[in-house]
Structure to design on (731 residues):
C-alpha cells in the first residue's frame, strides 16, 4: 500500500474508532479532521461545488504532506485530530462588562490608547446596540459600492461573486503549496475579500475594523485581494491590541493579485498572545502570505510589524511576473521572553526589469529566537532585474538569538542582487545617554528600538504607525532591567 | 548643593577614584583639571549615575538628598546634567522627539503639566538662538553624523533646554572652533543663575577665560591633590603638571 493510502486509511479508521458522528444541525462539529469534516464545512457554508472540490483536493494533498521542519523553530507536536475545524461564528459576548476582563489585558489596552468601545469589542464584552461605528460602517460601505469596490467577508464573496473567487482563489497560493496552506485550503472558515475594479483608486485605507466578521474568523483565515488594471488599494490587517484566542494553532492564507499597473499596499500588525513570561501558552502562527505581480508594472508592498505569537512562521512573498513590476517587503519582527520567530520573504523575479527591495529589522530580547529567512530568485528570463536586501538584527541582553539565512539565486548576467546584514546590540552607552537626560531605561529602550525600526514604521499608514510604536515599546517592558 | 565625601569608584575591579572630597555651593563655578586618565570623566560619570562604574565607598549629597541612591534618570530629573566628553549617537531617534520626551519627563517628575507640541517648539526656538545651533541639526537624529564640534554644541543646547541645577561640562571645549567656543561659553553664562552651579572639566585656560571659575581643582590619580582660586589655571598653563607631581614627592 502506498504512503498516501496508508495515511488515508489510518485517519478514516481513527474516525470510526472514536465513533465519529456528526449532526449537521449543530453549530460545532466534534474534533478531528477527515474528508467528511471537509464536506460538512462546505455544506454548512452552503458553498458551490467548485469550493467543495477545492477543499477536498487540498485535503487529499495535505494528507500526503509533512509539517515543515526546516525553520529555526522548536515546534511542539501538534495533534491535528484534537482540533475542531468548524464553529459557527459566535456573536454571544463572553462578558457583561469590562470589570470581568483580565486586568492585565485592560492595562495593555490603556497603554495602547485604545478607545473604550473598542476595548469592549476586543475583549468580548457586550457593546451598546447603538454604536458610532455602525453608521460609519454604513457610509463607508456605500462610498465603496459607488466605486464598484467589493469589500466583504470571504463567505459573502463566495455567495455573491463566485466567478471572481473561482478565477483567483488558489492562483497565488495553490493548495499544494505547503503543509499549512493545504490545511487552510481544506478547512478555512472565513476571511476577507477585496476587489478593486479597473482604474479605481480606493479612496480610504481598507481596514479589517470595518469587516463584518472581523472578530470571529477563527484560526484558519483566508484573504483574497484582487487589484484590477490601473487600480490602487491600501489594506490594513490586524490590530495592535493583544489578541487572545483559545485556539492555539493559526494557519492563515493571504493572496494578492495585482494586474497591469495596479498597486497594492498591505500593512499588518500582528500581536497574537505570545504566551506568558515563562513561555507557556501563546499562539502558533503559521501563515502563508503571497502576492502576485501578475500584470506589467504592477506593484505590491508588504509592510509588517510582528510582535505577537509564541511561534511565528511567516514569509510574505512576491512573485514578480509582469515586466517592470516592483515589490517591497518591509518588516519589523520583535521577539521577547520565549517567543520564536522564523520570518522573512521570498522575491521571485520572473519578468524583465523587475525590482524588489527587502528591509527586515529583527529585535530580540529575553530568551527569544528571531530568524530572518529570505530567498531572492532571479529567473534566467528576468533580465535587468534588481534586488536590494537589508536585514538588521538588534539584540537586547545576552540570552536571545538572531539568525539570518539569505538565499540568493541569480539566473542571468545583467541582474544585480545586493544583500547587506548587520547585527548590533543595544548600547549601554545609548541607554545611559537617555537616562542622563531624564528618560527612564524602559522609555529609552522603547525610543532606541523605535529609532532602529523607523525606516519600516514610516511605511505604515499614519494611525497604524503611531500604534505600532507604542506596541514595540510595551512589548519590551521588563526585558532589560 | 553638592557634597562629595571620600568617594571611591572602580571599573572592572580597577580603582579609579580614590577618595574624592568636594563641596559645591549654589552659584559657584568649579573647574576640574588634571592629566589624561586621572579620573575626571570617571568622576563626572559616577556623579551622573553611569552603572559601568562601581562606587565602592563614600557618600554624595545633592540638594540634601542621597545622590548615590538614585538611578541615573532620577538624578537628571533632580537637576543634574552631564555634557558628555563623547556624546552618543542614537540613530533614528529625532532630536525633537528625544528632547521633548526628556523635558516632559522632568516636568512630570516635578508635577508640572507637560508642554504641548506648540509650546515646546517655542522654547526650542529660543534656546536654539541662545547657543546658535543650526535647525538642520535639531531636525536630525540624536548626534547621528554630527561633527565633533556640532556634538558639543548640541550638548549645551540640551542643557539650555533642561535648565539643570548642576551642570557638569566634560571637556565641552575640545573640538569647538574659536567662534563656537565663545558662543557656547556665552550660552553657559547666560544660563547661570544664583541658585545653580557648574563643574567645568577642561585642559585649557581658553574656556575658563569665558567661564570664570571660583575654584580650580587638580585631579591626579583619582584624588583632588590641589585646590585654589582661578590663578591656579595660569600657573598650570605655564608649568604643566610636573611641579604638582613633585610637590607630591613623585
Ligand atoms: N570602562 C572602562 N574600562 C576600563 N578602564 C576605564 C574605563 N573607563 C575609564 N577607565 C580608565 O580609568 C582611568 C580614568 O579615565 P577617565 O576617562 O576618567 O580619565 P580623564 O581624566 O577623563 O582623562 P582625559 O583627560 O583623557 O579625558 C583611565 O586610566 C581609563 O583608562
Ligand atoms: Mg575625560
Amino acid at each position: 500500500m502506498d504512503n498516501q493510502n496508508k495515511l488515508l486509511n489510518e485517519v478514516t479508521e481513527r474516525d470510526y474508532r472514536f465513533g465519529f458522528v456528526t449532526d449537521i444541525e449543530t453549530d460545532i462539529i466534534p474534533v478531528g479532521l477527515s474528508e467528511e469534516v471537509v464536506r460538512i464545512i462546505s455544506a454548512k457554508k452552503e458553498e458551490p461545488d467548485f469550493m467543495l472540490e477545492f477543499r477536498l483536493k487540498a485535503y487529499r494533498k495535505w494528507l500526503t504532506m509533512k509539517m515543515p521542519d526546516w525553520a529555526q523553530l522548536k515546534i511542539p507536536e501538534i495533534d491535528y485530530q484534537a482540533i475542531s475545524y468548524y464553529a459557527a461564528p459566535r456573536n454571544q459576548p463572553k462578558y457583561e462588562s469590562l470589570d470581568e476582563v483580565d486586568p492585565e489585558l485592560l492595562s495593555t489596552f490603556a497603554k495602547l490608547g485604545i478607545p473604550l468601545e473598542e476595548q469592549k469589542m476586543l475583549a468580548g464584552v457586550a457593546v451598546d446596540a447603538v454604536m458610532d461605528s455602525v453608521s460609519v460602517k454604513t457610509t463607508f460601505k456605500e462610498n465603496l459600492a459607488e466605486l464598484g469596490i467589493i469589500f466583504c467577508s470571504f463567505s459573502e464573496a463566495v455567495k455573491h461573486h463566485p466567478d471572481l473567487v473561482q478565477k483567483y482563489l488558489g492562483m497565488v497560493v495553490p493548495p499544494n503549496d505547503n503543509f499549512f496552506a493545504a490545511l487552510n485550503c481544506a478547512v478555512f472558515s472565513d476571511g476577507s475579500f477585496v476587489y478593486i475594479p479597473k482604474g479605481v483608486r480606493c479612496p480610504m485605507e481598507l481596514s479589517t475594523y470595518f469587516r463584518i466578521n472581523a472578530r470571529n474568523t477563527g484560526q484558519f483565515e483566508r484573504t483574497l485581494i484582487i487589484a484590477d488594471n490601473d487600480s490602487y488599494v491600501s489594506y490594513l490587517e490586524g490590530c495592535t491590541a493583544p489578541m487572545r484566542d483559545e485556539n492555539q494553532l493559526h494557519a492563515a492564507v493571504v493572496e494578492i493579485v495585482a494586474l497591469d499597473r495596479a498597486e497594492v499596499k498591505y500593512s499588518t500588525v500582528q500581536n497574537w498572545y505570545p504566551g506568558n513570561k515563562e513561555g507557556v501558552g501563546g499562539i502558533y502562527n503559521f501563515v502563508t502570505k503571497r502576492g502576485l505581480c501578475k500584470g506589467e508594472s504592477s506593484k505590491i508592498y508588504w509592510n509588517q510589524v510582528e510582535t505577537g505569537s509564541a511561534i511565528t512562521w511567516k514569509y510574505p512573498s512576491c512573485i514578480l511576473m509582469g515586466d517592470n513590476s516592483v515589490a517591497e517587503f518591509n518588516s519589523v519582527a520583535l521577539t521577547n521572553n520565549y517567543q520564536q520567530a522564523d520570518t522573512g520573504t521570498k522575491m521571485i523575479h520572473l519578468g524583465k526589469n523587475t525590482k524588489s527591495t527587502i528591509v527586515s529589522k529583527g529585535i530580540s530580547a529575553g530568551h527569544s529566537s528571531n530568524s530572518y529567512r529570505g530567498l531572492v530568485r532571479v529567473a534566467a528570463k528576468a533580465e535587468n532585474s534588481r534586488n536590494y536586501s537589508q536585514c538588521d538584527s538588534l539584540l537586547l541582553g545576552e540570552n536571545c538569538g538572531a539568525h539570518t539565512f539569505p538565499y540568493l539565486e541569480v539566473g542571468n548576467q545583467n541582474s544585480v542582487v545586493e544583500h547587506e546584514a548587520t547585527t548590533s546590540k543595544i548600547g549601554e552607552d545609548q541607554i545611559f545617554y537617555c537616562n542622563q537626560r531624564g528618560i527612564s531605561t524602559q522609555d529609552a529602550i522603547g525610543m532606541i528600538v523605535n529609532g532602529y525600526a523607523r525606516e519600516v514604521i514610516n511605511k505604515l499608514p499614519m494611525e497604524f504607525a503611531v500604534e505600532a510604536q507604542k506596541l514595540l515599546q510595551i512589548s519590551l517592558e521588563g526585558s532589560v532591567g | 548643593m553638592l557634597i562629595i565625601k571620600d568617594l571611591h569608584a572602580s571599573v572592572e575591579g580597577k580603582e579609579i577614584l580614590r577618595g574624592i572630597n568636594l563641596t559645591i555651593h549654589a552659584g559657584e563655578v568649579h573647574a576640574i583639571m588634571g592629566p589624561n586618565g586621572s579620573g575626571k570623566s570617571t568622576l563626572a560619570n559616577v556623579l551622573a549615575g553611569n552603572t559601568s562604574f562601581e562606587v565602592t565607598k563614600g557618600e554624595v549629597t545633592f540638594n540634601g538628598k542621597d545622590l548615590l541612591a538614585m538611578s541615573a534618570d532620577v538624578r537628571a530629573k533632580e537637576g543634574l546634567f552631564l555634557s558628555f566628553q563623547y556624546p552618543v549617537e542614537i540613530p533614528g531617534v529625532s532630536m525633537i522627539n528625544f528632547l521633548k520626551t526628556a523635558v516632559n519627563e522632568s516636568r512630570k517628575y516635578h508635577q508640572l503639566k507637560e508642554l504641548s507640541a506648540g509650546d515646546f517648539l517655542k522654547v526650542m526656538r529660543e534656546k536654539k538662538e541662545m547657543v546658535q545651533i543650526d535647525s538642520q541639526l535639531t531636525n536630525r537624529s540624536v548626534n547621528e553624523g554630527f561633527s565633533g564640534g556640532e556634538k558639543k554644541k548640541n550638548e549645551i543646547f540640551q542643557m539650555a533646554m533642561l535648565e539643570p541645577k548642576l551642570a557638569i561640562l566634560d571637556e565641552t571645549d575640545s573640538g569647538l572652533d574659536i567662534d563656537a567656543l565663545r558662543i557656547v561659553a556665552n550660552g553657559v553664562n547666560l544660563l547661570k543663575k544664583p541658585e545653580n552651579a557648574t563643574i567645568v572639566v577642561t585642559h585649557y585656560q581658553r574656556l575658563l577665560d569665558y567661564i570664570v571659575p571660583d575654584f580650580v581643582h587638580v585631579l591626579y590619580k583619582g584624588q583632588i591633590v590641589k585646590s585654589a582660586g582661578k590663578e591656579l589655571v595660569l600657573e598650570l598653563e605655564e608649568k604643566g603638571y610636573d611641579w604638582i607631581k613633585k610637590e607630591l614627592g613623585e
Q: What stands out?
A: Chain B is about 40% helix and 30% strand. The pocket of adenosine-5'-triphosphate (ligand 1) is lined by residues B 11-12, 16, 34, 36-42, 52, 85 (CB under 6 Å). The two ends of chain B are 34 Å apart (CA to CA). The CA atoms of residues 46 and 241 of chain B lie 24 Å apart.
